[in-house]
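re: ur question from earlier - yeah i can do the single chain one, its not a big deal. heres the input i used so u can compare w yours
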Amino acid sequence: MFFSLGAQVKEGASDTLKVSHLHLKVAKDPKRAAMLSAVFPGFGQIYNRKFIKLPFVYGAIGGIAYGINWQNTRYQNFKYAYTDWVTKSPLKRYLDVVPEYYDVTTVDAAYFESQLQRYRDYYRRNRDLLIIAMGGVYVLNILDANIDAHLSNFDVSQDLSYNISPTILTTVGMPSVVGLRLEIKF
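and the output i got, formated as tokens:
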């Protein structure tokens, strides 16, 4: 760990020095931030003292978890409905997924079976995509904590500037060329 200490010192009337303002800046360890976020999502952001990112991390995780649960519930309903329809089960769970006014005895059996299979596959696919999205949010959480810890000591001072000005380039034995000069101060 690296420490940076800055202070303003004022000389008083006597031989004592008064410290009016003290800054202690601790360099963050990127490995620690990444490990904390890997073990418990959001802890790397807390370690980096970026509390404003926590609602985004937990909002994404909570929203995707809700979506996974919602899609999985519908997938299970259509999976059991399809199984009961194909096996002619006495449970008739396919009645749970159709509206009350829908009469399954008068419908084309092959069409109804294909619709049950299509909806089952649709909800399973969406659930699986949300599980992949949850993994993506988890990885982004770890990367954010790691990168934020790396950039915690990045100096963004007021001295960063650039200047673009016209110039004439002259070379011995060649004609002069008009161009632009880019000057960067840091």
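Helices lie at 30-39, 43-47, 54-87, 109-150. not sure if urs matches, ping me
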